[in-house]
Amino acid sequence: MSSGRRPEHQAPPDIYYNETEAKKYTQNSRMIEIQVQMTERALELLSLPEDEPALLLDLGCGSGLSGSVLEDNGHMWVGLDISRAMLEVALEREVEGDLVLSDLGQGIPFRAGMFDGAVSISALQWLCNADQATHKPAKRLYKFFSMLYTSLSRTARAIFQFYPENPDQIELVTTQATKAGFFGGLVVDYPNSTKAKKYFLVLMVSSSAALPKALGTESDNTTIAFSKDRAKFKKFHGKPLKKSKDWILEKKERRRRQGLATREESKYTARRRCGKF
Amino acid sequence: MKLLTHNMLSSKCIKGVNLGYPLGIEARDIKVSKVDFNSEFVTRIIPKLDYKTLYGAAEKLGHATDLPQTVVENFESNEDFLQKVHHVLLEVEVIDGDLICPETGRKFPINAGIPNMLINEDEV
Fold this sequence. Notes:
The complex is a heterodimer of chains A (277) and B (124).
Chain A: H1 13-16, H2 19-27, H3 29-46, E1 55-59, H4 65-72, E2 76-81, H5 84-92, E3 98-101, E4 117-121, H6 137-151, E5 157-162, H7 167-179, E6 183-189, E7 198-204, H8 245-257
Parallel strand pairs in A: 1-2, 1-4, 2-3, 4-5
Antiparallel strand pairs in A: 5-7, 6-7
Helix pairs in contact in A: 3-4, 6-7
Chain B: H1 3-8, E1 24-32, H2 39-45, H3 51-61, H4 79-91, E2 92-100, E3 107-111, E4 114-115
Antiparallel strand pairs in B: 1-2, 2-3, 3-4
């Protein structure tokens, strides 16, 4: 993504996600599909106990597309977002979860130990920007992560899908998360693809279990890609093989340089004669 | 806003506030809607709840008539009690009103069922 197209460079989130932008999230089926896919993957990374309804936190829930996925999996959720227009779209969609208007950088306004997990789809990169003179991204991220840490239960995980702009942002986010007490790290799905590549920050409250495996990384070192082309070793030894087409062409070129009469190249040059001769 | 959310919300984001819990509640408009009953979820959530706050909020909204004042024993098997908690927790919603910080008295307005927990930069 070129830097000019990043929405967080255009306006603060409460301004950027106005009525027109919010409407896209109910009408644009491609946007909806991507959001749903990423939420499903985030839910997989949460690795909640199966068939147990959980209470989840959706950070930057927007129009509640991700929340709908959580509902479909039988979970109850509470969503936080800074854009009123987006939350109004969520109300229109009649999501089951409860919605709260709040700025993630000001902290999570919940008491300790309540949630079984947290998901966040494409929201974290907004916190890396200073939209006001008083905003300090590192400070805001630390407040956010430390208050999130307390509001989660002991076995919980928090999964953030986000679009880091550069390696410095990844560094900034992971440093503040570790400082707040989280274990975990970054899982990159499809790292060799430009479009399907997705960053998931997997944070764990209690001692670090192994990070989940990223998708699309299997076939990297173990196999060699099949190619129909034969390996050619042209000019491997400096001089082409005698009687080969290259040898004949080179010979004609040399004779031309010597000023000798040489026939022009045609499609018959260096062709083998048919067997009659 | 459901009372489940009220049971968890606090105003500790404000500078100088220690606990900020429980938030006072003033309702001007209440809606009761139907939500599917999930006994497993209610059973799991009851130990985490601050039941006194829940009862207080339900009383304030006038929906505490048949809710017991304390958690009954063996609530896991008490279907009737679970139904009552489910009703208060998920079906009663505050559409319009205010939440009040117990320490500073600051008001957080609730509009269209969404509590506005945004605070000014000088309060952070």
